[in-house]
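ZP: hey, is the zinc ion complex queued? I don't see it on the tracker
AM: it wasn't, my bad. submitting now with these inputs:
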Amino acid sequence: MDIYYCGACGELLSECPHCIVCNQELHFHCAGITKAAYRNLGDRKSTWRCIKCKQTHSIQPPLSPKFESDALILKEIRALSDKLAPLECLKDEVNDFTYLEI
Ligand SMILES: [Zn+2]
Ligand SMILES: [Zn+2]
């Protein structure tokens, strides 16, 4: 049986997920995946990325990961509020309608 050391905490591992991005073996709990979920990946195991690498959204380690992920989150929040904007208008329309009914 192969023996690995966890890329996150440095402890010994036996069965473990392998991340293609940081090229490390990790504990399931260190990698942010459950054993069952990893087993269910099937063929996708060969392209699996640990939670850390998923968060950076990059094959190469970014120069300033903190900044990049913040910018990304900000972008996602803006995209989300754009999506929600029509709902806000709809809410106003509903309010107007209710008001007219009374
Ligand atoms: Zn670990
Ligand atoms: Zn990784």
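AM: back. The chain has a mean pLDDT of 82.
ZP: great, adding it to the tracker
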